[in-house]
Specification:
SH3 type barrels; 116 residues; 12 strands; mainly beta; single chain; five-stranded antiparallel sheet; 47% strand; elongated
C-alpha cells in the first residue's frame, strides 16, 4: 500500500457499482477510448463499463472475463489523500479514500510518495 494525493479533480460518470465475474460472457462495444488498454463491455444483464483489455479474451464482439473485476470509479478532489490499495492497470490505479470508499482513479490525477 502506498500513500497518494490527488493533483487533479476527477468526477466519475458512473454512480452505480458494476462487477464482472471470471468466466462471464460479455459483448464488446466501443474499442477506442481516451484510455489505451480499455474496452467497453456489456454483460447479460445489460450493464456496461470499461474493462481492461488484459482482463478479457475476445473472439469478434464476444469476450469472456479471465478474472473477477470491479468497475467502480472513485470521484476525487484536489488535495485528497488516498491509499493505493491494489492494482495499476492501463493508466488507472485502485485506491481507497479516507471515507473507506474504493475505486479506480486515473493515474495522471495521482501523485505518490515516490513521485516527490
Amino acid at each position: 500500500m502506498r500513500r497518494a494525493w490527488i493533483i487533479a479533480t476527477y468526477e466519475s460518470s458512473y454512480t452505480d457499482p458494476c462487477t464482472f465475474s471470471a468466466g462471464e460472457t460479455l459483448t464488446i462495444g466501443k474499442r477506442k477510448s481516451e484510455w489505451d488498454g480499455w474496452v467497453w463491455c456489456t454483460n447479460q444483464e445489460g450493464k456496461s463499463r470499461w474493462v481492461p483489455e488484459a482482463y478479457v479474451k475476445c473472439a469478434g464482439d464476444i469476450c469472456v472475463m479471465l478474472r473477477d473485476y470491479e468497475a467502480t470509479e472513485l470521484s476525487v478532489r484536489v488535495g485528497e489523500e488516498l491509499i493505493i490499495t491494489g492494482e495499476e492497470e492501463s493508466g488507472w490505479v485502485w485506491c481507497t479514500n479516507q471515507a473507506g470508499q474504493s475505486g479506480w482513479v486515473p493515474g495522471d490525477n495521482v501523485r505518490t510518495e515516490e513521485d516527490e
